[in-house]
Design a protein that fits this description.
With 200 residues, this protein is mainly α. The mean pLDDT is 91.
Amino acid sequence: MSRWKPNAEGRFRAAAMELFIERSYEQTTVADIAERAGLTPRTFFRHFADKREVLFNGSARLQEAMLSAVRAAPAHAVAIEAIVAALDGMVAFFGDDRAPARLRRSIVASTPELRERELIKLATLSATLAEAMRARGINEPDASLAAEGAIAVFRVAFAQWLDESELRSLGEIVSASLNRLGTIVAANGPKCSSLRSSRS
C-alpha cells in the first residue's frame, strides 16, 4: 500500500467522518480510518496527532484568518471596528458550504470529549483575539469584553447558519447578531447603570 498517494489528508478526513457517523467516534480507531482511506496508520500520523484532530486541525487556520483580518484593519480602528474585521475573517474562512460543518457539529455534539474540546477551542479564540486587541492599543477590560462578545456572536450566528431551515448567508447572520447585541446593550444601558448604583 503506497503512502505517497495524493491528497492523503483529505482522504483521511473523509474516511474518518464516514466512520464517525457509521460507528461513532468512540468506536472508530486510527487503523479503521487508515484502512477506509486506503493508506497506512503511519501516514495518518504524518497529518494528524490523533483521531480527534481530524475534527479540530482547522482551528489554527481559523485563528489565523481571524488575526490576519484584525491586523489588516486600519490603524485608527476602534474596538468595534476591529471586532467586525475579526468576524469578517472568520466568515470568509467558512465560505458558503454548510454541509461539512453540519456533519462535524453532529459528531462533536455526540461525544463529551469532543464537546469539551470545542469549548477549549472557543476560549482559545477569545483569548487570542483579546491579545490582538491589546496589541492594537485597546486597553482592558475593553479588549477582553470585545473579544468575548465577538466569539459569542459568532458562536450563536454559526449555530443559526447550520439550521436546516436557514437561508441567509453566514455573513448576514453574523451581522444581524452583532446588531442585535448592540440593540440589547443599548436598551438595557439605564438598567445596568441602576444595578451598579444600587451595589455601590
